[in-house]
Each structure stands twice: as C-alpha cells, then as structure tokens.
C-alpha cells in the first residue's frame, strides 16, 4: 500500500515537472519569436511606460548625437525585442538598462567607452552622507518649530547621525540584493530576515544611545545647528561624488565610463 502511494506521489511530481518544463519551453519559444518580430509590430506591443522610455530615448539620441528622427528610430529598433521580452517578464526598460533615457543614449552613442561599476564602498559613503543630511536636516527643521519640551521629543545628534549613516549603507546594500547580478537574486525569506535583523539592531542601538549615561556624548542640538550639520554633510557628499565621478542615484549609481 505504501509503495503504491509512493509511486503515485512520484507520478504527480513528475507530472508537475513536465508541466513546468512545458510552460518554460513555451515562454522560451515566445521570447525567440519576439527576437525576429518586425520593429513596427514590437512598437505596438510596448507598454505605455516603455513607449515613453523609447520616445525619450529617441529624443536624447537626436539631441546628443545630432541625429535625424529616422536615424534615432533605427537605433532604438535594435533594442525593441529585448525591451518587449523583459516587459513580458515584468521588467520595464528603465529596470532592464538601469539607466535613464539620457544615460542610455550616451552609452549607445559611445559604445567604445568601457563602463566600470562604482565600488560598493563609494556608493555606501554616498548613501550614508545623503541619509545623514536628510535625517539631521529633517529633525533640525522639526526642532525649529518645537516649542514644548524639545529635549524629550528630539533625538541626540549621535543618534541621528548614526541612524542616518546606517540607513544609507543599508539602502545601498538592499539595492544590490534586489537587483539580479549574474542571473542571481537574494531569496525573499533571506531578504526579509536581513531587513528584520537590521531593524532590530537599529532599535537596540537607538535604545542604547538614549540611556542617561550616554547623553553627555549624545546631546540634543538646536534645530539651526542640525540644519548646518545637514548642509555640511550634503556639501561633503557633493564633493565626494565630484571627486569619484559618481552619477545617477546613490543606490543604483551610473557606472563610470572610461
């Protein structure tokens, strides 16, 4: 009886595998078919979001490369199949290329230039300075309008600075986790556990910094001072990005071109 049940389970598993393979084969066949589609047909299959991306890309090609409309269209025709294929799998063009139309146009016009990915530490410093400026600046603005018990309602400068820096680094790392590299992406359970672990660590850190014994090195500063510190942090970030030629988002920065 047990052997028959085992055979039945094996049969069901094999049937499921065959069904998955069949569906994957159909998906692959459709993708191959799209690679040979006429550009005019592919344009009709673009989503509204991708239509806008292609339209702006063509405008940038005309502007940056001094191309005619026809020449720009011819260049984007070569991208349509991969855009539509990615679209079928739920990925828009800006996610596929990780670049705005302006940046993508520059890459297309200068393909001989090699791209070098911005190192993680540079993106981490960039993100840390940005969040430092946002956190300290935001609480500084709040403090300016706080009229009752500011010492009880505001966090100390060490708390604000450390939380901002840690959040900036985490967001950069989170971006690396969710964007597939070499066809691999971190699993959802691991991503959720990592996020939960970081959240718990932050709360514990904030609690430690709120202890009376730590208050001497973690004073609550006047709002105006917080805003000045935020401005300095943002200025330092600007100079840092200029020095290392970092462009684009702090969390999905544009690769350097050499």
Could you outline the blueprint of secondary structure elements for this entry?
Layout: H1 2-35, H2 39-45, H3 48-65, H4 69-77, H5 80-88, H6 93-97, H7 101-109, E1 115-116, H8 120-144, H9 150-153, H10 157-178, H11 188-209, H12 223-244, E2 247-248, E3 253-254, E4 256-257
Antiparallel strand pairs: 1-4, 2-3
Helix pairs in contact: 3-4, 3-7, 8-10, 8-12, 10-11
Helical content band: over 70%
Q: Give the strand line-up of the largest sheet.
A: 1-4
Provide a count of the helices.
12
Largest beta sheet, briefly? 2 strands, antiparallel
Tell me the β content.
Answer: under 5%
Class of secondary structure makeup: mainly alpha
Q: If you compute it from the alpha carbons, what radius of gyration comes out, rounded to the nearest whole angstrom? A: 26 Å
CA distance, first residue to last residue: 69 Å
Instruction: Report low-confidence residues grouped into runs of 5 or more.
Output: none
Count of beta strands: 4
Describe the global form.
flat
Overall average pLDDT: 81
